[in-house]
Specification:
This protein is mainly β. It is 0% helix and 45% strand. It has no helices and 10 strands. It has strands spanning 2-6, 9-11, 17-24, 33-38, 45-50, 57-59, 67-72, 77-82, 91-97, 117-121. The strands form 2 sheets. It has a 6-stranded mixed beta sheet, with no helix packed on it.
Length: 123
């Protein structure tokens, strides 16, 4: 399998970024997908999840109303639209598959994480 994350960068507080995760090597449309982020010294944090069909989503409290997760099953991609970015959103962002649509906040499917993409929010 492969999960290639792109779209990170440096942005000012209040700005926006859209992250993209291109998936291959597994039946993408049959899995929920999630975005995670990791800051040095902290545990990896689950940020947002979406069901296999896109009909259900879930967000961690700190990003509700600012981030939107959505997916394109035809092109095997999942996206994270991030608006009103704050310095505390600075992290390396990763995507991963979930295990089941019945638990969008469950553990990740794949043990390896790929390279992620750095998001830095700073003036």
């Amino acid at each position: 399998f492969q999960l290639v994350v792109t779209g990170g960068g440096l942005v000012q507080p209040g700005g926006s970024l859209r992250l993209s995760c291109a998936a291959s090597g597994f039946p993408f449309g049959g899995y929920p997908m999630s975005w995670y982020r990791h800051t040095p010294g902290k545990e990896r944090e689950l940020v947002a999840s979406i069901s296999s069909t896109g009909g259900a989503t879930r967000y961690t409290e700190s990003v509700k109303g600012r981030f939107t997760i959505y997916r394109d099953n035809a092109n095997k991609r999942v996206y994270l639209q991030m608006n009103s970015l704050k310095p505390e959103d600075t992290a390396v962002y990763y995507c991963n598959a979930g295990l089941t649509d019945y638990d969008l906040w469950g553990p990740p499917h794949f043990r390896s994480w790929g390279q992620g993409t750095q998001v830095t929010v700073s003036s």
